Amino acid sequence: MADIHRFRDRAHAGALLARQLRHYAHAPDAIVLALPRGGVPVGFAIARRLGIALDVLVVRKLGMPRHEEFAMGAVGSGGVRVLQPGVPGLMGVTEEDIEAVTARELAELERRELAYRGTEGGMPGGSPDGKHGGVRPALDLRGKTAILVDDGIATGSTVLAAIQVVRRMQPRTLVLAVPVAPPATVSKLAPQVDELVCLSAPPLFRSVGQWYDSFDQTSDAQVQELLAAARQAPAASHPPTGGPKNENADDG
């Protein structure tokens, strides 16, 4: 684990991660899967420096009814749903509860899929000019190297759900790459992937944002812009900037 403790911003974190992932440079079967929203600037920097493809993996946690902090499963890109062992039944969760929560989270997942990937329900859509990502085909990870990226991890529940979703898509190799996470979370997630790259695992961990000098929220518009840039000019060295702030953006 590299001796890195602070990052200027998400692009800086991505550049440092790219150094640790350089053995995947220009691999034709490798793809960076960034978790929106905050993971996308990190993933863009990695993909650009390694010369490999960038896409997003949209994942929504399925929270337990009346106990949303506990995950009973997740839904992800490609219509994949993963349920924890014992669900339904666990903590009194019924099949009706599962369907209600799933419907709510699928609606938000489809909104984000349409915004980021130009697809909804597996059908093409969005703007074909590429200004906002254009029409992106459904994710196909079978036999590929999937590099799952976020801007940092706290508890790991969302990333664990993302790992389960990616595994269902049958990649040959699953890599998890993050700038910072607490040691206990790193230990929990390491057995779930084929390779884990974490630049810093500080024991005194309060939040992801505390390890960045600049941790501005990432907007939908910025995600769309970065995805479009990655498609159109994968070898460029500097990401575009701009796009309005979104007060509901994810913190990672």
Structure characterization notes:
With 252 residues, the protein is of the alpha/beta class. The protein has a single domain, classed as Rossmann fold. It is built from 6 helices and 10 strands; from the N terminus they run H-E-H-E-E-E-E-H-E-E-E-H-E-H-E-H. The strands form 3 sheets. It has a 5-stranded parallel sheet, sandwiched between helices. Helix 4 (157-168) links the parallel strand 8 and strand 9. It is globular, with a radius of gyration of 17 Å.
Which features would summarize this protein structure in a list?
single chain; 252 residues; alpha/beta; Rossmann fold; five-stranded parallel sheet; 10 strands; 21% strand; disordered C terminus
Whole-number count of domains: 1
The end-to-end span amounts to 20 Å
Category from helices, strands and their pairing: alpha/beta
What is the CATH class?
Alpha Beta
Task: Kindly state the number of beta strands.
Answer: 10
Indicate the overall shape. globular
Which architecture does the CATH hierarchy give at level 2? 3-Layer(aba) Sandwich
Number of helical regions = 6
Strand and helix order: HEHEEEEHEEEHEHEH
Strand content: 15-25%
Low-confidence stretches: 120-133, 235-252
Rg over alpha carbons? 17 Å
Mean pLDDT: 83
Roughly what percent helix?
Answer: 25-40%
Strand order of the largest sheet: 2-1-8-9-10
Q: Can you summarize the main beta sheet?
A: 5 strands, parallel
Task: Report the CATH topology name.
Answer: Rossmann fold
